[in-house]
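Tutorial handout. Part one gives the primary structure; part two gives the three-dimensional structure as tokens.
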Amino acid sequence: MEIRYERLNPENFDAHSLDAFQRHQAVKECWRYVDGMWQLRPVSFEENWDLPQLREIAGDIAAHMTADQSAFGAFAGDQTVGFITVSHHLFGRSARYAELVCFMVSAPFRGRGIGRRLFQLAAGELPKLRAEKLYISAHSSRESQAAYRALGCTLAVEINRELAAREPFDVPLEYTPR
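Part two.
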């Protein structure tokens, strides 16, 4: 099935646009900052979003996509199979960071390059925002970290303390466009 990519707007995305989305991740190992270094540790859990969670996230994306975030979606027919959002609010002392707020590909559509294309679209927003780097408070699972590394992300030079406090098990990453 052909995948098309579009900037999200009220005509192609609303609070019900993720109703068929499959957020599933079976985690076995996560990166943890222990004794001054990142270490892979056994941590086992599953993440699944139910319909109320999907609608809450879709509603949040819809509320911000034309106000203070750039948002892109991947579509298979009328179904949203991936999305990414970037905040327009910049922060940082050493660089002008824009935060990658949300980034997900529906489970049945992973491994097809959809995430890479969405990430490229998000990174393409940095010059428009006058940002130097993309900041990612990234899920610490082995798989998520491997995906971000494959996209060219590295450990963040500067840590956003507010985001780190909100998600203490996330790994702070950054992406610098080439």
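Part three, for discussion. The longest strand covers residues 79-91. Residues 3-175 form a domain with the Aminopeptidase fold (CATH 3.40.630.30).
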